[in-house]
Amino acid sequence: MTVPLPGLPDRIRIHEVGARDGLQNEKAVVPTEVKARFIRRLAEAGLTTIEATSFVRPEWVPQLADAERLFPLLGEIADVGDVELPVLVPNERGLDRALALGVRRIAVFGSATETFAARNLNRTVDGSLAMFEPVVARAKADGVGVRGYLSMCFGDPWEGAVPVAQVVRVAKALMDLGCDELSLGDTIGVATPGHVVALLAALDEAGVPTASIGVHFHDTYGQALSNTLAALQRGVTTVDASAGGLGGCPYAKSATGNLATEDLVWMLDGLGVATGVDLGALTATSVWMAEQLGRPSPSRTVRALSHKE
């Protein structure tokens, strides 16, 4: 039954991260052809932004070492509809590799905390911003869209609670570099709705418009959907999610799976918020991918809709 709530957007865009953020955390390396089929099926299910892969050094994330082989296999996805295939790039070398394959949308990946910046990027927070500056400038000069990911926006496993002002400083710096969009990451899943609202309000006050913000919640404590709803009530219209709930973070061991795309779509369908996603087709895709991985999907909606007596 569709029962709308007042104050929600009519439509949101799902930024699907299962093929990149999800698969990078798998112990096994998924074959390139399986990844391509996964992305193709996600597009056929109606997802229009599908993060495809990451152009990082293979030894850092061996699960995504096939980026050069994968991306050329995705050209036919353009025939499905208006589908964007952003990729993650850590530095100028990664940007060079992506541009050589015709990538038109990239993302850089920063941290709101010093410890995670050191562990993930081997740099300070300000040092990572300096590394991103030429990447963003070159991408923008070439007409390539840029997303800025900001990790540890709500809590850090080494530093504890992260002050809102600290997140706002780094978020604003990322946007000042020229990013088109900012994704706020609850990397270890500790956020609660009041914290989400407070951070969005502080960012708005600092001149970072809500229209440019996406939210990226992990479900460690079962809060991802409630946090998403709080963000939507504050005007956010971009939500990151992972088909089947795949993923975590290889650099933060307390980070469990991402918000499952199916769980998100079930909630939004019930609220009358349009996504353009066919829940049945998406669920079938996640069941298929779980079979490839040899384990059941952690998504409650996938399990409920695929359950057979």
Description:
- With 309 residues, this protein is α/β, with parallel strands linked by helices.
- Helices cover 41% and strands 14% of the residues.
- The protein has helices at 18-22, 32-44, 67-70, 92-100, 114-121, 125-141, 164-177, 193-205, 224-233, 261-271, 279-293, 300-306; strands at residues 13-16, 49-50, 53-54, 87-88, 105-111, 145-151, 155-156, 160-161, 181-186, 213-217, 238-241.
- The strands form two sheets. It has a nine-stranded parallel β-sheet. Strands 7-8 form a two-stranded antiparallel ribbon.
- The protein is globular and about 50 Å long.
- It starts with 12 loop residues before the first strand and ends with a helix.
- Belongs to the HMG-CoA lyase family.
- GO terms for molecular function: lyase activity.
Structural class: alpha/beta
Q: Please give the share of residues in helix.
A: 40-55%
Radius of gyration, whole Å: 18 Å
Low-confidence stretches: none
Main sheet characteristics: 9 strands, parallel
The gist of it:
InterPro entries: Aldolase_TIM (IPR013785), HMGL (IPR043594), PYR_CT (IPR000891). The protein is α/β, with parallel strands linked by helices and 309 residues long.
Topology:
Elements: E1 13-16, H1 18-22, H2 32-44, E2 49-50, E3 53-54, H3 67-70, E4 87-88, H4 92-100, E5 105-111, H5 114-121, H6 125-141, E6 145-151, E7 155-156, E8 160-161, H7 164-177, E9 181-186, H8 193-205, E10 213-217, H9 224-233, E11 238-241, H10 261-271, H11 279-293, H12 300-306
Parallel strand pairs: 1-2, 1-11, 3-4, 4-5, 5-6, 6-9, 9-10, 10-11
Antiparallel strand pairs: 7-8
Helix pairs in contact: 2-11, 6-7, 7-8, 8-9, 11-12
